[in-house]
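Quick note —
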Amino acid sequence: EQLVPALELFEAVGDLAGTASCCDDIGRTYWLAGRMSEATRFLERAAAYRERVGDRQGLASTLANIAVLSMSRGEVARAETTIARAVRICREGGRRAELVEAMNVQGAMYAMAGRLRDAVATMRDALVIAERIEHLRLASILKNNLGDALLTLGEIAEAEERLYAAVEAAGRLDDHTLLS
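Predicted structure written out below.
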């Protein structure tokens, strides 16, 4: 609620990009506070403003947040449609790190929805991109998530390979929070 005066100021001066950013911040704050209706309302406002100003990467990020929030509320179809749109925007924009992050979210959503084969395929594709751009943190996260999905599928040998690779990568990064 401390962000509301900032939002009012951005709106008063007609700063749509600032309004979008502020709405996104407020939405994420409400989400963390467990106030899901308000979070959804502000994230949707942020997405609309980002679209109006042509902020495609900001839009993709906000859509990914909306997708995760929708999934947490059990709105699977909405979540999948929204994250697919975020992935498409990232592909069109050519920003590969953001694409990998969106694909990781998409893979996690597939796994949560019980679509493990889709999850594995999406995470494998994202891992190829992460390794190609040499993004060690994202590659480590994907190896861990991919290992978990493969384990659930009963593909033990590949799951072990991916999980050990995730541990090794996290060790090289000296960041063991990646293995949660």
